[in-house]
Structures are given as structure tokens and as C-alpha cells.
Amino acid sequence: MRTKRRPDPAVEVLAGYAADNRGSGIAYARVTGARSRGLLRVGFRVGLSGALADRAAGYAALTAISRALCKRGFRNVRFILGDPDFVEEIASRRGIGEALALAYVRLRCALNSLATFDVRSGAADDLTQRARAEVALNLAA
User: Is 10 among the domain residues?
Assistant: First the structure.
């Protein structure tokens, strides 16, 4: 006899990230849900520099967080990011440009490995500040 498996409840993930000028980045994700709470820290690499470095860091950070959540068994995720322009870019799929196309494809593959996902803008300043501080300390060391 087969039983229907109930879908996992959604978790909310506040995400903050930063990368240095060499392409090394840190992302923090505060995971809250019915059955889980915690802080996740993941590293990532960015291949672009210059004007697109911040946007590329966003793609790489969200990709790394999505993969880490999937490995931990999370399947229904609502992401909250501090950059409303980045959220709009992901949602509308417009304005990505050739330089970020591969980063976008990687992100969509990672997001599509989840059962459901939603990306919204909101306050994630404390996590972003934490990531920036850690990146700055790594540069100083």
C-alpha cells in the first residue's frame, strides 16, 4: 500500500552575501520554518570583476545557498534578499546580459532542484553586514 507523502512545509531563508575583489565570497542564510531554525554559512567564487561583480556575487551566492539547502533536504523555500533590483531581475528574466547569462543558468538550475521556491525582497541587512565584515577580515589577513 502506498501512502501519500505530505509536502515539507516551506522555510523562509533570509540571505546576505559579499565578495572581495579577488572573487572569494561568503553567503549567510538564516533559515526559519516550522521544523527548522538555524544559520547557514557557505562560500562561493565569482568570476567577474568590475561593474558586474556585485550582481555576479548575488547569482553565485544564491546558487550556493540553494545547493546547500537542497543537500540538507529542504524542498520548499522562500528566499528573502536585500536587493530588490536583483529580485526583479530573477523574476522578470530580463536585463541579465551576456556576461551574466551563465551565472543565471546556474542559478536557475539550482533553484529548479527545489520543489518550490519564491524570491522576494526584504530586509537582510544584518546578514549582508556580517558577510561584508568577514570578507574584509579575510582581505586584511
Answer: no
Can you tell me the distance from the alpha carbon of 39 to that of 31, in angstroms, rounded to the nearest whole number?
A: 6
How many residues in the chain?
141
- Does 2 fall in a domain? no
Give pTM, 2 decimals. Answer: 0.88
Q: Which helix (H) or strand (E) holds 15?
A: strand 11-19
pLDDT digits (tens, 9 = 90+) for 54-64: 899 999 999 99
Which has the closest alpha carbon to 26: 65, 72, 82? Answer: 65
How many whole angstroms separate alpha carbon 57 and alpha carbon 49?
10
Q: Which three cell numbers stand for residue 3?
A: 501512502
Any domain includes 11:
no
- CA angle (105, 46, 26) in 5-degree steps: 110
For the segment 21-69, what is each residue's pLDDT rounded down to a tens digit? 888 999 999 999 877 789 999 999 998 777 788 899 999 999 999 999 9
Query: Which residue's entry shows cell 537582510?
Result: 124
Using CA atoms, how far apart are residues 36 and 112, in angstroms rounded to an integer? 22
